[in-house]
């Protein structure tokens, strides 16, 4: 019996293994291809080989020599981090209120935030462009941070309120009985337990801000606040006749690195089952 | 340490539901008081109002002589143990117990000392650096108690603290809670739905039903002198037998036969202006196998003969179950008790069921006739309409 069971699981494992491999290859192939392109020299760029014949770091060193890319990278990091921080802080407070308190207009608030999340962004670009120009926000960091926060907040509120609902209400009562003010109860008991939710939300919001192209191209005009996805589309070769494919590939690889770092850094903090042991046995 | 006074405390929810109505309880300094009743009787709401977790709609709550209605829980200086324990899962046992002291900005040396003292009392010494998720149910329960005692509060509030433990551990913890309270001498208000806990733990017991206090008194007093049908049926296990009867000139016509009231009871009943239909309550231990009753005693009681349905031998004594022909006693209070204990459907089969506790020496056999005697002076009579105990006396 054990033999049969073993054979069955081996067969099952093989099937799953193949399926997983297919999915991973399908998903990662374009990434590998762009990595391969970024390491090719200008002459071999279009030779059709997947593995470069002559490896070179020229593309990387070149993009870091241009202010166009370096400035955009700084803009991207700054804008995404600020937008993420603000969205997570406000999202945490709003989500806590939604999960815990009964206040008039609560369902309206939830409904409106859902509405914002579903609103087609492209239809907001023209009014935002006009508004930001008359307010002097056009082509500035706040000009991008504000719309990012607007769209990231519903996401943050939704994710976080789900996490807050998981935390037993009694913990807060216990903290109150132990002599904590509502603020202390939140900071010392609820916030640490909501941390996995906060990190998850931070990752999602950061990725959203980092990847945005639509707002970034519509609401910026110069290097002052242009983010990397936009800068990439403005790449030109060193001369008019040169193909910028190599540089674009290298830049594309570079901008995935912060995302990977960000996810790896926060993923370690997402510990499942942090609230276990709080209540009952 | 302080006395707690509830003066006509009422809780009314915004939707109009009346959870607690005009509760008057005076809890003396150092007293161990139990709030008991079926679920939904308002006992936990009352406790939460003492704690400050629920607002008091009307009435006054005084702790140590001061009105505290408007004070936040943290300013009332009372500690609470929750049914679910509510331990902080991200803190170790030590941090959990130190938390109230840290909030009170106590210096490190004192915190260390108090936590260690509490850990010694509760036998948690070797678990101080573990997280709650790695503890057993009983250990978690002790940590929750530890968190309450480190602060030496004016009073402890316990909200069904043992209900999540298994039966054996519950009995064990019950003893240690009692010992702890004696040792610390702190006022304790303890909520439970378990009448055994209420009987064994408290100095005094408050029986609640539908948001109102039914009776307050020492456990033995409530057992011997229940004020009404509800208290009589709730306190005691197995619970009191209730038999409907007609009352005429000092004679009870019941499924147990015609019972001549003793002079004492007759006087009480006359003074209480009893109706002609009553409910007779007899505790299981007031029955005895008539062959084991001595001759001179027999006159003071009444005997009946019936078929033994089930006989359970407990070693020290036997429980004999009978079903007598006749209608079951009905009243709103009995229906509520049956619903709470889940026996509402089980006892549906026609006839009056009776539990008797008789001597282990009895030769009664299952399925055979047995002659049972009971002490006629121990019966209690209740008004089926109001539930009032017609034979209630103060002593």
Automatic annotation (TrEMBL), chain A:
InterPro entries tied to this protein: BP-dep_ABC_trans_perm, MetI-like, MetI-like_sf
One GO CC term, this protein: plasma membrane
Gene3D superfamilies the record matches: MetI-like
Membrane protein topology class: Multi-pass membrane protein
SUPFAM superfamilies from the UniProt entry: MetI-like (SSF161098)
Superkingdom of source: Bacteria
Location(s), subcellular: Cell membrane
Keyword entries, A-Z: Cell membrane, Membrane, Transmembrane, Transmembrane helix, Transport
Main localization, broad class: membrane
ABC transmembrane type-1 domain residues: 73-266
A GO biological-process term: transmembrane transport
Sequence intervals crossing the membrane: 18-39, 72-96, 108-129, 141-164, 185-208, 248-266
Secretion signal span: none
Family, per entry: Belongs to the binding-protein-dependent transport system permease family.
The protein's name: Carbohydrate ABC transporter membrane protein 2 (CUT1 family)
Species per Swiss-Prot/TrEMBL record: Umezawaea tangerina
UniProtKB/TrEMBL annotation, chain B:
Coiled-coil intervals, chain numbering: none
Gene Ontology annotations for the cellular component aspect, listed alphabetically: ATP-binding cassette (ABC) transporter complex, substrate-binding subunit-containing
GO biological process: carbohydrate transport
Keyword list, A-Z: ATP-binding, Cell membrane, Membrane, Nucleotide-binding, Translocase, Transport
Matching SMART domains: AAA (SM00382)
Keyword set includes Glycoprotein: no
MF annotations from Gene Ontology: ABC-type transporter activity; ATP binding; ATP hydrolysis activity
ABC transporter domain residues: 4-235
Keyword Iron attributed: no
SUPFAM superfamilies with a match to the protein in the record: MOP-like (SSF50331), P-loop containing nucleoside triphosphate hydrolases (SSF52540)
NCBIfam families attached to this UniProt entry: PRK11650.1
Protein name, per record: Carbohydrate ABC transporter ATP-binding protein (CUT1 family)
Organism: Umezawaea tangerina
Species lineage: Bacteria, Bacillati, Actinomycetota, Actinomycetes, Pseudonocardiales
